[in-house]
From TrEMBL:
Cofactor field: pyridoxal 5'-phosphate
Residues in Aminotransferase class I/classII large domain copies: 21-349
Record carries keyword Membrane: no
Protein name, entry field: Histidinol-phosphate aminotransferase family protein
Keywords associated with the record: Aminotransferase, Pyridoxal phosphate, Transferase
Gene Ontology molecular function terms on file: pyridoxal phosphate binding; transaminase activity
Ranges in a coiled coil: none
Domain of life: Bacteria
A Pfam family of this chain: Aminotran_1_2
Gene3D superfamilies: Aspartate Aminotransferase, domain 1, Type I PLP-dependent aspartate aminotransferase-like (Major domain)
Amino acid sequence: MKLSKYLTSMPAYSPAPNTYKVKLNTNESPYDLPENLRKEVVRKLGEMQFNRYPNPRAVELREVAADFFGIDSSMIMPGNGSGEWLKMLISDLMEHGSKLLFLDPDFFIYRRNAGFAAVEKSIVSKGEDGFITVEGMIEIIQAEKPDLFMFSNPCNPTGQGFNKEEVKRIIAACGDAVVIVDEAYNDFYGESIIDYAVTTENVIVLRTCSKAIGLACARIGFAIANPRMIDLINHIRSPYSVSQSAQVIGQVVLKDKEYLRSITARVVEDREITYKKLAALAEKYPEEMKIKPSVSNFFFVRFKDSKKICDALKDQYSIAVRDFPTAPIPHTRITVGTSEENQALVEALTEILAEQK
């Protein structure tokens, strides 16, 4: 069989199973839907026609999502999670041989998907600590001259964020190249460029319902751009990729803006409280642990012996975090959970680090 060599040589994506008491490894919302929204979802699902295909253009979901993001429905198109858009845009948007630029560290799926596409990919390091200035990013863009530049803001996995004006400077440096800004975690930051993206020709913003909105199970993501770009990229989207049940769930939940704002604010508050505690641990054990502030719902942590610490968290405390020991900059990404889960993490790390010293 003439299978893809890239496919047969790549490691499988294997997140930890959902068997741990405290799950801080996949950046999901720690809060399930409240009872009133669950009841409304069940009611609306009961009105579905199960023998019919989903609405191919997800008209009602687009209208509700457009209202949520403050734009016109012609400027937004849903997909099966933002991950579907990442795959399609990298593989199908550009001409064969186009140059795609990614930075490292950033969301590893960008590089993974680009390996399947008939494009030239350039991966440039942000530096030894994983963080970069706007000037540093612009310098890389001007040197590489990409046809497409994709980056996450806030960055996954570092939690670093650029404000709106900084992102506009980055986009301007790209000239007429296509710029895809992955704002999966921007709900926790509040520096979205959606209002700018819909007025430009070459910018696409990706958003997801899997993080702050708390609908990871539904797999709903959005591409947001000017109407012409939305019409173009709709050509590469499978017409039935968003199930009718997902469309119904999204419609119900996205209408409750007050609930979503409150739950996001709670995560942000818990993030700040937890960061102070983790930073205090890093200050106490500077040789064992390093951490920087985050504007997302996770922390970028560098342990001297991450495998030992992550194994101890799982085996002794039933706490799952995400370890990247073979990344160019080895690190551990820790999701912000409930206040109780965050405290359990801090107490566990306190004991583990004391034993290792």
